[in-house]
Amino acid sequence: MNDFSILLSAAIPAFRAFALAVASAGCLQAAPFIVDEAGAHAEIVMAEKPTRSAKLAASELQTYVEKITGAKLSVVTSPTKAQPVKIFVGESEHARQAGVTAEGLERDAFRIVSGANWLALVGNDWDFTPVEPWGRSHTDWLKNKQAEWMKLAGHPWSNPVGATIYKDYSKELDIWKFDHRGSLNAVHAFLRDLGVRWYMPGDLGEILPESKRIELPEVNRTERPEFEIRTVNRPMLSSASIDDARWYLRIGANDQYGVLHHGQRYVTEQPDQRASHPEYYVLLPNGKRDTESEKANACLSSPGFFKEMVAYARLMFDHYDMPIVSVMPHDGFTHCQCDDCKGQATLDRDPSGHSSDYVWKFVVRVANELAKTHPDRKVFCGAYSTYRMPPLSIDKLPDNVWVQITNGRPIREMDDVTHDGTAELRREWQAKTNHPLSVTLNYTPFTDRGEFRPQYWPHIIARGLRDTAGQVWREDVWLSSGKGGLHFPGMSHLNPYVMSRLWWDTKQDVDALLNEYYTLFYGPAAADMKAFIEHCEKNYAKLGSDSDLTRTAIALFDKAKAAAPTDSVFGQRIALVDEFLVTLRNRATQIRADRPEGLPEFRVINMAQDKWRDVRDTLVIDGRIDEPFWTSYSLRGMLKDVRTGKKPKLPSEFRARWWNGALYLAIRCQGEPGAVPIIGGSQDGDPAIWNGEHLELLIETDKHSYYQIVINPASHIINMDRGTDKAHWSKWSAQAEVAAHRGDDFWSVEMKLPVTASDEDPLHQIIGSMPFKSRAEVLASGKGTSLPWYFNLFRKRAGSPDEESTAFSPLGPDAKTFHDTLKFGEIYVQ
Fold first, then answer.
1. CA 159 from chain center: how many Å?
2. 779 lies in a domain?
3. Cα–chain center distance at 624
4. Less packed terminus of the chain by CB within 10 Å, N or C?
């Protein structure tokens, strides 16, 4: 008896109904069969020139009927007399004669209709054709097609479609992400009716009933997706694993053709553009145009940049026949500080609205210009970063502007406050536009960047999709990447699977969907895996930081692991989850250790208080620490010998401020009179910085542990996210403003560290809430609360004769590493 047979009687009623139908032969002799014990009684009929969708659909149907019954159906382009039952896959003359067409069906919608001796599986199909020039591979683009593009463009612009569209195609399956695939969806729906499930890529993720009989059903139904565009970035259709590509299609994912996301980058990122037009780029607080950073943003007041953005969109509309082009700023947004741009900031708003009017006014200017020549095309921009909130100065966006909200439904939060707040944001944007919204969903923190907590959010997904149905035309889901497929698919498949089913029917019972999943996928461990997954969903935010909740998660999983034989298909599936839990197990052991008593604390001055109103704007980040911003209050911290805790030979002190969503630090390092500090490294990110005198800030927020920022007396900086695996440490940037100053017997540093509460962009800025701690008497009363950060600050005089090292929180004589998070001191606003 196989694993499926053991579970068949425990599956959901629809599945049981199928099992009963195929098992009760004596009651069904009058009904036609597609397959019975005698073999096949049907043939698959498709058009002489089928769409790609219909051709693949016929193959899928043939494959799975054979997997279920052992009988192989023939595929023909004209009905024969060999079999009495005809299965029409895709539109064809023969399906039309039976009265079934795709007329009136929207993209990817389908019909399943039967007659006395036929079944039609017909949907909205359309074959996408790419426009030249486009690269068949990365090499082909660089060596051959890029030159054609540059000649066509006449400007140093990038072409994301021409350069990467080959990734949107499966050679083995001969299908594009942009194809309309209604007939393929119809076949997959019919196979699900028979009990097939594709929970995870590959054979291990497949549920397959076994029967010698498939009855010709009595059916007449039409299905339409509730969300027109259903994009997932992983798995890729072009994945080297054909299992990944097939799963992408089986969950019904698709994509929108066009230039989406950060469209401005394609006008600004080429070196020749930066060299020729520095005036197109943001003016930084240091008075220089940012033509060097990887994600240099544009000056949105630049007339030249405006003209090129419009020209770029027109070229994409005309030559590549794109229906939609993004004019959204580049990632890691920076508000230009030139005279024309700086005053457009609305700093009295929440930080997510500081640049809303600035950015969206630019979008409107571009859209109005494009409407003159292309009134039928869409101009696209995301509500993201400091322009996520709707603009105040624009009552209604032009009719050709379409809006995308980043994380437009909650990702991992179960609380009503978050769901209600996101719903209100959607309502505010809907008031600005006549169109449905698009939402990009960053399923962060990404596990391929070091996140170790299991990510199961099915109920949050169900609630979010119910709330957005009818409001959203496009879901753009970003999942952790395992090359071309899911990262740790044994754990990560459930979220996209649940999404894929609810995209077609948000009203279905998600718990019934999940109970079927637990039963079929985990067998004897179903109840225990359900308990584990529900615990992880409910307590995700505290896993890895709350010792009891973390140990409970491990215990629940271990109980499930013990319930399924290791050599069974259920045990193999559970083993894939176990592979992901290695770091969580280590973390559970680590957080059992309490922080030592007596660690130092430091209070940050909150500049939002009215008493600092007159000094808030006095800061000039030049490294001198001479403004009232710093000098109006004398609270400072001192660094001590890193091992003994005693007063060092050369003292160092620091001050800290919190203002407008940023942590400000000022650090003064005493030196020998006339002595020049030893400087290692000549640029940001240079490892040689460690070879000279430098400061190291290690900081653990309430949401992330931990960041490392290294600064030398020449203002050069190293950014590292130590909370990820080593290969990704240096991909993070604090986006800090830093300046160092050297005096006769000291050197000093001022820095601004932007902080964001959102982890939608984990590669930029410190992620955390404002650190705070109520006064001791308020905490003791039970009315207060505490959410501090933890940090250590080191001064290391590398290269000097004594190489003295000092720290805010000394490590002790037996310390083996500077990176001891349990020795970090507290830092907070009070």
1. 23
2. yes
3. 40
4. N
